[in-house]
Amino acid sequence: MKFLLLWALLNLPVTIAFNPDYTADFTPPYLVYLKSEYLPCTGVLVHPLWVLTSAHCNLPKLQVMLGVTIPADRQEKDVQVVGYEKMIHHPYFSISSIEHDLLLIKLKKFIEPSNYVKIVNLPSKTAPVDTTCTVSTWAYNICDSSKEPDSLQNVNISVITKAECRSTYKAYRITEGMLCIGIVPGRRQPCKEVSAAPAVCNGVLQGILSYADGCVLRADVGIYTNIFNYVTWIKNTIRNN
């Protein structure tokens, strides 16, 4: 009996055992799976022709997939797959820093909106402390992380103060261009999840994950790019390209 219980626990998706607040098998319509020959990333549809993600993502031979719940399921319906035309990193991004960690991807064709694929709203102000946000990304099965992720999950966690964030991440300079979201002091459970998880608060994109020491789907504190500080760059880039 003990062996059977251990086997069952080990075969749960990697985040289930530790986070009672997650919800699975619902893909927010703005969420984008960025499949590549390296590691995948999560993106957000911000315009019918543009996806926003983190600049630290390395995406050779990129495929943009929208409306996806389980990337490994080739039979899934209502999925749109498109190529891309260009990638534009924020001009001040550096691979040695977590500042300005944004990348815009221009698609080869306009996305058709549906019940499964929709554009997310950009912010008109920064989300205040204690705002509840939904953070979404894909997780890998604990027993086989060599395949594509097989568990789409969403977790509701809150914006914390800069002071709390600096206490959690003493080695990092937390600037106004960043948001910190999670539970203080954070549980920092090891896991494997797809990078660049977005934080959407009250229907508005407020952050894209830049760095986390732990697992954001278990509510560990993550450092997110504060989207409000970059709305002008996002809109200008889209208009000029």
Keywords:
single chain, 11% helix, 241 residues, seven-stranded antiparallel beta sheet, mainly beta
Task: Explain how this protein is built.
The protein has helices at 2-10, 162-168, 231-240, and strands at residues 23-24, 31-35, 41-47, 50-53, 63-66, 80-82, 84-89, 103-107, 132-139, 151-158, 178-181, 198-201, 204-212, 222-226. It is mainly beta and 241 residues long. The strands form 2 sheets. It has a 7-stranded antiparallel beta sheet with strand order 1-10-9-12-13-14-11, with no helix packed on it. β3 and β4 form a beta hairpin. The longest helix is centred in the C-terminal third of the chain and has 10 residues, at 231-240. Residues 1-24 have low confidence and may be disordered.
Low-confidence runs (pLDDT<50, min 5 residues)?
1-24
Our Rg estimate from Cα atoms comes to 17 Å
How far apart are the termini? 61 Å
Total strands: the figure is 14
Topology:
Elements lengths: L1 H9 L12 E2 L6 E5 L5 E7 L2 E4 L9 E4 L13 E3 L1 E6 L13 E5 L24 E8 L11 E8 L3 H7 L9 E4 L16 E4 L2 E9 L9 E5 L4 H10 L1
Antiparallel strand pairs: 1-10, 2-3, 2-5, 3-4, 4-8, 5-6, 7-8, 9-10, 9-12, 11-14, 12-13, 13-14
